[in-house]
Specification:
Keywords: Signal. Residues 132-141 have a biased composition (Gly residues). Residues 23-55, 121-183 are annotated as: Disordered. The protein is α+β, with helices and mostly antiparallel strands. The protein is 26% helix and 18% strand. It has six helices and six strands; from the N terminus they run H-H-H-E-E-E-E-E-H-H-E-H. It has helices spanning 2-22, 37-44, 61-64, 141-144, 148-151, 169-174, and strands at 68-70, 76-85, 91-98, 107-112, 117-119, 162-164. The protein has a six-stranded mixed beta sheet with strand order 4-3-2-1-6-5. The longest helix is centred in the N-terminal third of the chain and has 21 residues, at 2-22. It is extended and about 60 Å long.
Length: 183
């Protein structure tokens, strides 16, 4: 009895996989009947955007959500919770979750997208406090504390590591929370 259930499950899985594999993305109408048709097609129809956007300077909204936002003092003030678009599709605002603990007691504050400076380089680790004996500027303490992974070459990042704004965490806590109509 157990073998029949297993074989039936495997068979159903193979049939479903075959059905999924047979579906394909829609293709533009074929113009193989006449050789002159491809020359007329670009003028009559707008060009479709390229599907592979990797490395083309395009960002997905889902990848920006959760990106850390830092204030002018290089301290984290929150993270991106939403992107707000206008009717034409341009990103107007970034909402940043401020305050609270694990999302409890936090609020979202809207910041104009142009006021966020995005960086694909990780934030530099804070330099350790000088020893009680006093340190000199020539000791190089700031460069010795860099993590070993930072020295290894890496591929250019497609998405920003963090954003920086000119507002402090206290200023954001005092700012009004974002409200949405029809939520």
């Amino acid at each position: 009895m157990f073998k029949r259930i297993v074989f039936a499950s495997v068979g159903a899985g193979l049939l479903a996989a075959t059905a999924v594999a047979q579906t394909s993305a829609p293709t533009p109408p074929s113009s193989s009947s006449t050789p002159a048709a491809p020359a007329a097609t670009p003028a009559s129809k707008p060009a479709m955007p390229e599907n592979n956007l990797a490395g083309k300077g395009k960002w997905r909204a889902s990848k920006l959500i959760g990106v850390d936002i830092y204030g002018p003092d290089d301290k984290k003030v929150g993270d991106v919770t939403e992107l707000v678009f206008d009717k034409s599709g341009k990103v107007e605002m970034v909402t940043v979750g401020v305050g609270g603990f694990l999302g409890i007691g936090s609020k979202d504050v809207a910041i104009p997208f142009e006021q966020v400076s995005w960086s694909d380089q990780p934030m530099a680790p804070a330099a350790p406090a000088p020893a009680a004996g006093g340190g000199t500027a020539g000791t190089g303490a700031g460069t010795a504390s860099a993590p070993p992974a930072a020295a290894a070459p890496k591929a250019p990042a497609m998405y920003p590591d963090h954003g920086k704004i000119t507002l402090t965490k206290d200023q954001l806590k005092e700012a009004p929370a974002v409200t949405y109509s029809g939520s």
